Amino acid sequence: METVIENEVSFTSDIEGKIENTSLPTSKPLLPLFELISNGIHAIEELKNNKRGVIRITLKRQGKKETLASISNFDQYPIIGFKVEDSGIGFNKHNYKHFLKSDTTNKKSKGGKGNGRFVCLKAFKSVSYESFYKEGETFVQRSFEMKPKEPGIFDLKVSPYNGKNGAGTIAYLNDFIERYSSKCPKSASEICLEIINHFKLYYLLDAIPKISLEDYGTIYDLDEIYETTFKTDILQDFVEFKKKVFNLYIVKSREEKANICNLCGHNRVVTSRKVSDYIPDFPQKVEEDNLSYSLAVYVTGEYLDTNVNKERLSFNFPERKEDDGAEELITSEDIFERVTQKIEELFSDVLSENRERKIKKIEEHIKNKAPEFRFLLKHCLDKLKRLEPDLSEEKLNIELYKIKANEVIKLKVLSNNILTGSNIENVEDYIARYNKYIEKENDIAKSDLANYIVQRKAIIDHLGNLLKKKDEKKYEWENAIHKLFFPMRTTSDDINYDDQNLWLIDDRFNYHLYLSSDKPLSSNDVLDELDSTKRADLLIFNKAIAFADNHLNIGSITIVEFKRPMRNDYKPDDPEKNPIDQVLEYIELIKDGNVVTYEGRPIKVPANLPFYAYIVSDDTSKLEVLLRRHDFTKTPDGLGYFCFKKELNAYLELITFNKLLKDAQERNKILFDKLCI
Predict the structure, then answer these.
(1) Contact by Cβ (8 Å): 54, 210
(2) DSSP calls for 468-499
(3) Is 227 helix (H, G, I), strand (E, B) or coil?
(4) So which domain of life are we looking at (predicted)?
(5) Mapping DSSP to helix (H, G, I), strand (E, B) and coil, where does residue 395 land?
(6) What is the CATH number of domain 15-220?
């Protein structure tokens, strides 16, 4: 047979466009090498001669071959190409025909996506082939070079071959493109480890040809590296989800730096997650019989093989449960969750000690510092087990809050089902659900109450600290005191209920119609046609008991003025320094104005509308002078003063900081005692 040049030398698609649209991250510079090894594995499988095939890899480094062979540190020189030889079936007419087709399905059953050669040309300037195959009773040699330009195939030659070495193919990856070569490991040992890691499933299943790698006279046997470095005890198991079976190969590896779970498609690792993402307290290294190892878990299955993408870098199904289409399909997250649940079962002994220590720490934190989460210890222990170990108190509280919030939502759904009777099959089912609902509802309510009591204790303690002298022997300014009770320059429509602490003065202040804090009377939403820039610290419109004549009745108006602790510069003739005259002036201004809702609806204000004015201050000597001039009387406990202005129908009271703090402590003492705080 003479050497001939065949006519079929071009791809059936735009090769330049195909390469342009092929994905190859620079972080995966060895993927073209893996593609050639994979082609060799498939070619050996296709030969079906019942012999273990052979793949030989040779590195080509930058520099002269003679020079590199004569020096000891040649492995520091960059790699510029690879030579891959296999003992497979070769580029016969059938394989070559499909090779010229873009996205060929010729190797679909083996996981081939018909895209490997384009991945090679993404990172190398050309790929050369010398292939030997049997045609009838004779052997033929086919050689050609593939380049990323039209027509794609160059120097194609087919000639007779004596068949001395049998069938096989030699492929050359030529001229490593710099953006990929710069990311390629220089060490031959590291490349060997990368190859074994990439084809680990073939090794696990004992389905790998004998692979060796030569680096300028040094030959590496990958079987030996696998036996000494990778091969340890291997656990095999499976999980099932939505009638799909996933096989598990759990490798105890001394080399892995973390516990990794890998989803594989056609014997290749496609995507990975840390086991700790799903089992936070799984130890980084497992100690067993004087052996320290991490887990490398490989998951295989028909569902994964069917849905792996062309580049085998991802799957064609949703990654997370919330992604589009996730309801009908099995997601990556579904698989990882079930696999890690199986790992949790298999390694329960390893986890038990860590879990016990973590749960004890969480339990102590909840009982001593966060009683609002106490019900989680009873109802959500499984979720607590999945929290990361050694969380700071701040992060632990956030995670506990997330669990609680989720439980509250679930409880609302359960409540709705019970109340509507949906999905209730019989009386016994209804009673069981009702009892479950009542039990959890009570526990959550108790935890919320505990949290509220703890917050009250913290606020009272903080108030006590504000009343002390600071380092420079001065007291806190009025604004700091004001903000503790209610945010400044806001109204009750602007803030959340939990952002105010009016209960420090009187719990009834929480139940009001409208409240304005440190806003000019003229800008107040419920005072119409009132032209005054005066600012009451707190102006509270209290609800009436009943409605009448289609008007909103207002029950009373409360004014609160805060003063700096131990302030003693009060003057009877200075309105800015006379808090009693201040509140009386506010009352007179309000009586002269019109009162409406913030929507403009009129509020009925009786002529004899009661006013309550509270001045929160220390009874310093100069303030006591003002109190006497206005005929204030001491309260029975001797800690405050009060008087009544008949002409304004106004009750005025001085609440000293000592009285405020003492009364708040005593009103809440029984609650604090119950929680032992």
Answers:
(1) yes
(2) S--TTS-PPPHHHHHHHHS-TTEETTTS-GGG
(3) helix
(4) Bacteria
(5) helix
(6) 3.30.565.10
Q: What are the structural domain ranges in the chain? A: 15-220, 234-346, 351-461, 478-661
Closest alpha carbon to 35 in 169, 216, 148, 223: 169
pLDDT by residue (tens digit) across 261-301? 999 988 778 999 999 889 888 888 888 877 788 898 999 99
**Could you tell me where the DSSP H helices lie in 535-651?**
579-592, 621-629
Please give the backbone phi and psi of residue 519, each rounded to the nearest 5 degrees, phi first.
Answer: -115, 145
Cα separation, 96 vs 213, whole angstroms: 27
Q: How does pLDDT run across 331-348, given as a tens digit for each residue?
A: 999 999 999 999 999 998
- CA angle at residue 497 from 495 to 498, to 5 degrees? 105
How many CB atoms within 10 Å of residue 11? 19
Q: From start to end of 231-290, where are the E strands?
A: 234-241, 244-253, 260-265, 268-274, 286-288
The distance in angstroms from the start CA to the end CA of the chain is: 99
The DSSP symbol for 184 reads S
Angle, to 10 degrees, between the axis of helix 427-466 and the axis of helix 657-675?
140
pLDDT tens, residue by residue, 124-166: 999 999 999 998 889 999 999 999 888 889 999 999 988 888 8
Query: Helix, strand, coil % (nearest 5) of the chain?
Result: 40, 25, 35
